[in-house]
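Hi L.,

You mentioned the student needs an example of a multi-chain input paired with its predicted structure. This one should do, with 721 residues in total across all chains.
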Amino acid sequence: MANQLEIKNLYASIEGGEPILKGVNLVVPKGQVHAIMGPNGAGKSTLGKIIAGDPSYTIEKGEILVDGENILEMEPDERARKGLFLAFQYPVEVPGVTNANFLRLALQAKKGGEVGVMEFYNKLQKALEVLEWDESILTRYLNDGFSGGEKKRNEILQLMVLEPTYAIMDETDSGLDIDALKVVAKGVNAMRGPDFGALVITHYQRLLNYIVPDVVHVMVDGRIVTSGGPELALKLEAEGYEWVKELVVAGS
Amino acid sequence: MSDNFDVATIGSEYKYGFVDEVKPVFKAEKGLSRRVVEAISYHKGEPQWMLDFRLKALEIFESKPMPKWGGDLAGLNLDEIYFYAKPTDKRDARSWDEVPEEIRQTYERLGIPEAERKVLAGVGAQYDSEMVYHQVKEELQRLGVIFVSIEEGLKHHEDLFREYFATVIPPEDNKFAALNSAVWSGGSFVYVPKGVKVDLPLQAYFRVNTAELGQFERTIIVVDEGAEMHYIEGCTAPTYSTDSFHSGVIEIIVKEGAKSRYTTIQNWSHNMYNLVTQRALVHKDAYHMWLDGNLGSKLTMKYPSSYLIEEGARSDILSIAFAGSGQHQDAGGKLIFAASNTGGSIVSKSISKGSGRSSYRGLIKVYEGAKNVKVNVECDALLIDEESRTDTYPYMEIEDDTASVGHEATVSRLNDEQIFYLQSRGLPEDEAAALIVRGFIEPVAKELPLEYAVELNRLIELEMEGSVG
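Structure written out for the whole complex:
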């Protein structure tokens, strides 16, 4: 199907180790924001990294389709150029490479050609304004010596500059205070529209007060066990994950 | 930055490896002998004292054993080397039009005349054993700046020449300094008078065209009191199946309150043995910076040194080494503190790839009685793959306990997480790796003039092509 990110019966393991994903099925249509919640160790972050093409995992079977095209054989950079973006749970530091230079190279790689200075600068200005951030962040080295909160905010800056079609947000809320959380949510909400889909991975319902999802999926032990509207997140917050774990036992 | 990832250049390897159809007008017989030394001196029309100096140096060379440390010199057969090749009868042309056509074309291909027009205060161009071109901007000449070939320096400024020649690096210093003293040919003679600030860099460009040639440039730079100067040397050669040899001696005198900088972008072809002695004497409140970029050659052994001989003298040594397959970069630096309230640093960044090996070799010496010396050493090595190798030989001789000495060393491998992160933003794997390498050397590379920083980035991208995955 065009116009959606689709995960079909996906089985995966850490290289030479335990199976982590055990038959994931999930569809995120363009224009919607979906959340994945679940207990620690359910495989949520693994799913995000696998979609982005992290080479440390082995795909046993299944498919990941972006607008109908299977991307499993593609390198991570090809996937990015197809419109995928992963906001990392732990963004990586690259000393000596300025944020501005990196963003420009990444944007050029995505567009497959030169990006005009003015176009680039305008994009940056707009994003920085939404993120309530000072320009000085651009001359700092990529995530080098950034605080946890700055790193997360920098992921959203990249998201806004690169404008992917489908973004996976991997626990973008972890380690953020409430003010930082609001700013990050503002960035993601600014992206929302008919040409953008997102999969928000989170452990806590808190983030979903600010990024209100269209659909909430619950993942337990490598599978999506139930899905519903935003109210599902509230139920999980109130009642914990015990009842969904029982669904797994009942279903298996 | 648009031309950073120009696909057309990828995989083209060493782009300076072309050969010119230039026959030397005179070439000494192969190997080293008294007769060869006499022939060199004769062709230069030298005074007797210089011939005597050369012959004495030859004896010193013969009496010293080959060094047993550093790189493997077993493949360097001096009997198979030509010690002198004179490309043309006209030395030190003042205009490119006077340089023989084929030779001029080479420098055009290397972009030298263009750079001279745009960003340099003066250019010297050495082809094989002689400087074929030397010119400095007229306003600097009027201020008394001398920038000529070493031969012209001896001929026209003999008193000044004799005052400094071999005072910083005598022939006894080491075997290859003795060799250079015996057979030196080419190089620059630079004098910047008191208080004169040369804003744009002076550049010397060294090209070896003749196969199996040894190039032995000798450079003297005197930066007089309160003066400022930046000298850049660049080096390339054709790729031959036989080995070539380059062994320079660079002597720099930085007088009271003066500032100087010596930048090397060495990109010899991978059949070159490159053994160079470079040393600066830094006087009261003066400053000298060595920026040493070693990218080419088969084996480089080169440790720019600063002797801080009067109070308040400072010196920084910045070193970048890139050892690709088959290359050994044995580089680093020496800081010798012989006066109080002096200071300096060595920052070394090395990258090893394939079977390449880079070694950091450094010496910090603080003499007893040199009070309150502050010095810091940082050497970082990056290994691109499993096969590549690095080693570190940091020597410290601290005789005064008021010295503050810092030392940090790191070795890291190209990091998979960094690569995945950058790839996930759309950069192909090779470009991601090249970007990480560029970031690694950035603390040193940012000190380069822009044109050279761009060139360095290009070289690294070429070298990183196909190196990961």
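You could point out the following to them. Chain B has three domains: 14-298, 303-413, 419-469. Chain B has a mean pLDDT of 92.

Best wishes,
N.
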